Amino acid sequence: MTAPSRLSRLSRAVVLDGPGQHRLVSGPAREPGVDEARVLVSAAGICGSDREVYDGTRPAGYVRYPVTPGHEWSGTVEAVGPGVDPALVGRKVVGEGFRNCRTCDRCRAGDTSLCTAGYSETGFTEPGGFADTLVLPARLLHPLRADADLRAAALLEPAAVAASAALMGNALPGERVAVVGAGTLGLLAVQLLAAASPSELVVVDPRTGRAEQALTMGATQIHTPADDRLPSGFDLVVETAGAQGSAAASALMARRGGRVVLVGLPAPGARGIDPIHLAMSQITVHSVFGAPSAAWTHAVRAFDAGLLDPAPLITHAFPLVEYATAVALVGGDDPSVGKVLLEPGSAGG
Q1: Quick one: 137 and 216 in the same domain?
Q2: Which of 12, 91, 164, 296 lies at 20 to 30 Å from 193 by C-alpha?
Q3: Environment class of residue 240 by beta-carbon count within 10 Å: exposed (0-12), middle (13-18) or buried (19+)?
Q4: Is residue 149 situated within a structural domain?
Q5: Cα separation, 29 vs 125, whole angstroms
Q6: Cα 32 to chain center, whole Å?
Q7: Is residue 294 domain-resident?
Q8: Residue from 342, 348, 349, 347 nearest 70 by CA
């Protein structure tokens, strides 16, 4: 069931033995088992959590060394195991990261990112996409259009997280909406929220260049907090910055009876939401942890329909052998660095 491929017998992978200890290994590509598929990785994004894995700052329960990182990826199915439709071979795909059980109460309710069977995720506890090939349960795959841009599709994992926030926020046409943070998550959220036809879509970020990029993605206005007081009175505020005070600020931006969705993950010690303001303003607050299957479906459909274009967010791409250089760019203060990719499938990968 294996499609012809230059990598069908040999596969390289980045392996982190521990914080700051990485090596590039090479060996036979693993054959997919029952209900599994093997994907030829085209591109894989590096995000802040991948930098945490490299630095050793990710909470112990959410990483298992040694590990091949890479939870944001795209590729083409090159082989399938018993129980998987052979027609999947040759399809362009992305895939969910959470290895949910499908049988617990949370999974049956559709909250597959909150599976109670124990945390298991591609790139953190299971081998990830910083490799030539990746084997995973076929049920986690989301096929793409035949003409899909696989470079852009590598950002569909953070897009699914943004989609989860958009779905939770339930933005209605004509509402006033704000997005706090113009990083990758924020700009993807802007595109998805713009599709709901808000009357205003304001983006708040102190980095003027990143905020201005939002204007090309559907935002109607940008605001830098240093300019003056924060705007307020929004029906929906989606917080993606993960800064020390951004959750508290987002709550203050919502109108009485409004909604706030918290997506960004701040470092310990962040300022919390004032409980008196929360109670007196009757604000509804949601939080996002990863992306359930429904959010993945929403993001992939928006991508296939042309409503979501992650490509402009990509600023750097490196071959697999330059993993250390690539990961060092992530999480710094350089405003010119957007999404950084590894491209195992490139000629120099």
Answers
A1: no
A2: 91
A3: buried
A4: yes
A5: 19
A6: 25
A7: no
A8: 342
Q: How far apart are CA 220 and CA 91, in angstroms?
A: 37
Are residue 30 and residue 56 in the same domain, yes or no? Answer: yes
The CATH number given to whatever domain includes residue 18 is 3.90.180.10
Each residue's pLDDT, cut to its tens digit, for the chain (349 residues) gives: 444 444 456 899 999 999 999 999 999 999 999 999 999 999 999 999 999 999 999 999 999 999 999 999 999 999 999 999 999 999 999 999 999 999 999 999 999 999 999 999 999 999 999 999 999 999 999 999 999 999 999 999 999 999 999 999 999 999 999 999 999 999 999 999 999 999 999 999 988 888 899 999 999 999 987 756 889 999 999 999 999 999 999 999 999 999 999 999 888 888 889 999 999 999 999 999 999 999 999 999 999 999 999 999 999 999 999 999 999 999 887 888 999 999 997 656 7
The position carrying tokens 């052979």 is 86
Exposure of 188 in the CB half-sphere (CA atoms within 13 A): 32
Claim to verify: residue 276 and residue 240 sit in the same structural domain:
yes
- Tell me, what CATH number does 281's domain have? 3.40.50.720
- Write the burial class of residue 329 (CB in 10 Å: 0-12 exposed, 13-18 middle, 19+ buried): middle
User: Do both 215 and 268 map to the same domain?
Assistant: yes
For 304-342, the three-class secondary structure string (H helix, E strand, C coil) is: HCCCCCCHHHEEEEECHHHHHHHHHHCCCCCCCCCEEEE
pLDDT of residue 229: 81
Tally of domains in the chain: 2
Which domain covers residue 222, as residue numbers?
161-287
Residues 52 and 139 in one domain: yes
Kindly state whether residues 177 and 133 are assigned to the same domain: no
Residues 265 and 179: their CA atoms lie apart, in Å, by 15
Residue 103 is predicted with a pLDDT of 96
Strand extents, DSSP E, 264-313: 284-287
Q: Under 8 Å CB-to-CB from 311, ≥6 apart: which residues?
A: 149, 151, 152
Instruction: Give how far the C-alpha of residue 37 lies from the chain's centroid of Cα atoms, to the nearest Å.
Output: 21
Same domain? 151 vs 238: no
On whether residue 305 sits in a domain, the answer given is no
Are 151 and 172 found together in one domain? no
